[in-house]
Amino acid sequence: MSKSKLGLALLATSILGATAAAADTTLTIESWRNDDLLLWQNKIIPAFEAANPGIKVQFTPSAPAEYNAVLNSKLDAGSAGDLITCRPFDASLALYEAGHLTDLSALEGMANFSGVAKSAWQTDDGSATFCVPMASVIHGFIYNKDAFKELGISVPETEADFFAALETIKEDGSYTPMAMGTNDQWEAATMGYNNIGPNYWKGEEGRLALIAGDQKLTDEAWVAPYRTLAKWGAYLGDGYEAQTYPDSQNIFTLGRAAIYPAGSWEISGFNSLVDFEMGAFNPPVQNAGDDCYISDHTDIAIGLNAKSPNAEAAKTLLNWVGSEEFAKLYANALPGFFSLSSHDVAMEDPLAQEFVSWRGKCHSSIRSTYQILSRGTPNLENDTWNASVNAIKGTESPEDAGKRLQDGLASWYTPQQ
Amino acid sequence: MPASKDSSVIRWHIVVFLAPAVLVYTAIMIFPLFNTLRLALYTEIERERVFVGLQNFYTLFGDPIWSDAFWNALGNNFWFFFIHMIVQNPIGIVLAAILSHPRLRFAHFYRSAIFIPTILSFVIIGFAWKLILSPIWGIAPSMLDAVGLKSLYAPYLGKEEYALTTLALISVWQFIGIPMMLIYAALLSIPEEILEAGECDGITGLSAFWKIKLPLILPAIGIISILTFVGNFNAFDLIYAAQGALAGPDFSTDILGTFMYRTFFGFQLQLGDPHMGSAIATAMFGIILIGVCLYLFGIQTRMRRYQF
């Protein structure tokens, strides 16, 4: 049913596109977001075309797992679309360095984005930005409001509150305190270490110092999050060692767990599954009154194919991607994928609103391992997964984990040597 | 001189008949194999493929970061193989012995039922067992609870000390049909006369099994062992389906296949390195080659065969 609709829609756009091509410029967008096909066709493209007569847009996504390979071969063959959806960091940087993406630093719409937002699509020295940021995902904790009410727990502000809340839930016994497993490993690093960590290494300050070589992974700020993670183990469900990511999602949405260490991308999925009210809180700070930091991770952007014959029209679209109108459309159609622009975007979903409100009171940062530091072997991101799991299970001491990661990083990254 | 005339004629039909098999096999087996071996001698510097000789192997065995991972994977592989050998062969023999019992009813049914997991996909096996053993939804905890053995339950796949053994046992469960069938066939081929002759000499029951049947099925067990060896050292699918490419927990289930996959194709933020990946693949090829040669020249040639 939905497939045939999709087919019809595709057919319709291709026919329309073909007939319109005679008079208008047609732009083609390469993307891995095939989940968003209908969103582009029904909402984003019509809005853009209405505002910019004479430009037609086609959104032609491929499967996420194949995107990088497909895109590379298309770019090499010269058959890629005018606009390229950019993965963050090294994958897109490689495309820019190979001359496939245009430097967009001078683009008018770029002014609407902060330095952090652009960092994922810049050269290492920050001199050139080659993709317009589209969306980020924010980390935090989603909780079961009904459970909190039932047990008389208020939203934790500090780590002491947080662990006191976990202890209360554990003692009561009717809920698993926190739904997370270590079987798939990445949650421990992404929703664990990089979720709570920015509070310790002070977000961008620590992240950039690590890249510059001024801080080391053996420093207290980078080891302490492992020490906190080590305390999580007692509050994860029985047998969390073999609990997978879908297991955790199900446990929480079935109402069996009170807290879920989350990324904002869960919002739309969870909304359709839960029958209780959900709330969210940002990673608790160490002491009351401390500045809070959040992981506001840059995830998706859009750039210009250097060989595009329609560069002018494409730049019109890219400028529009930086506009408030686009930000509103995109953020509301996909709650949990937040606009990276500095526009004040009103969102309808209350949970998404809660997540995005942290940008106002906390400092934003991105995942510590994503920029530059995961280029070599051993891979710092993969090692962080492993170290976070070990910390939660208590099979490796936080200090040993920090030392192992530091040694691994120093083995190939010159500023850390 | 008819003889010399014969030898001067080129027998085209031999070439023609051999050609399809040789061409196909060369194109899809021999060429990729040697190309992989060749790829291991290169590396990529500044987007150019550069010949570096044995540099990748020095890195693999000399650099502690690589060699630790390699020896860990190799050690795990040997443990995986060891569990297969000590579990699958005795069970295979017992099953075959029971199946070949003349008075067993529904033998066909048992034979098919035991063989069915072998034809299932690794992905199905991996996910089915992950669910069975799951601490949250699995039936393993409640089944153990029902017989009062709840204390024996642990999240096996999530514990460093159990995960690899558990996966090896799952793999044995899946493939037990093959040793069973081969041993069963070997048992059936033992002529009645020999057993009857043994009976006349007073060898019956268990001692008939130990003294007559077992020596006669040893060649079959040898074949099974070498097939298991090759299969285990090439294994990848089950670990990947159950534990993912990082072969958790803490690389305790990492075997050569998953190590090679991670290196060759990359994983998450780690970009693929086809050259190091090929070096690992070459090492795997070498290990399997040595193992098979040891078997062929050290064991197979010394094995006693009986002609009836």
Offer a concise description of the structure.
Chain A is an alpha/beta fold and 417 residues long.
Describe this structure in words.
The complex is a heterodimer of chains A (417) and B (308). Chain A is an alpha/beta fold and 417 residues long. Chain A has 2 domains: 2-134 and 299-348, Periplasmic binding protein-like II (D-Maltodextrin-Binding Protein, domain 2, 3-Layer(aba) Sandwich); 138-296 and 367-416, 3-Layer(aba) Sandwich (D-Maltodextrin-Binding Protein, domain 2). Chain A has helices at 2-21, 37-51, 64-77, 90-97, 115-118, 145-150, 159-172, 186-196, 198-201, 204-212, 220-232, 245-253, 266-271, 311-321, 324-333, 350-361, 380-393, 398-410; strands at 25-31, 55-61, 83-86, 131-144, 176-178, 257-263, 278-281, 292-304, 338-339, 362-365. In chain A, strands 1, 2, 3, 4, 5, 6, 7, 8, 9 and 10 form a 10-stranded mixed β-sheet that branches. Chain A starts with a helix and ends in a 7-residue tail after the last helix. The model of chain A is unreliable at 10-22 (pLDDT under 50). With 308 residues, chain B is mainly alpha-helical. Helix content of chain B is 71%, strand content 4%. Chain B is built from 14 helices and 4 strands. In chain B, strands 1-2 form a two-stranded antiparallel ribbon. A two-stranded antiparallel ribbon of chain B has the order 3-4. Chain B starts with a helix and ends in a 9-residue tail after the last helix. The chains are: A alpha/beta (417), B mainly alpha (308). Chains A and B meet through helix 12 and helix 17 of A and strand 4 of B.
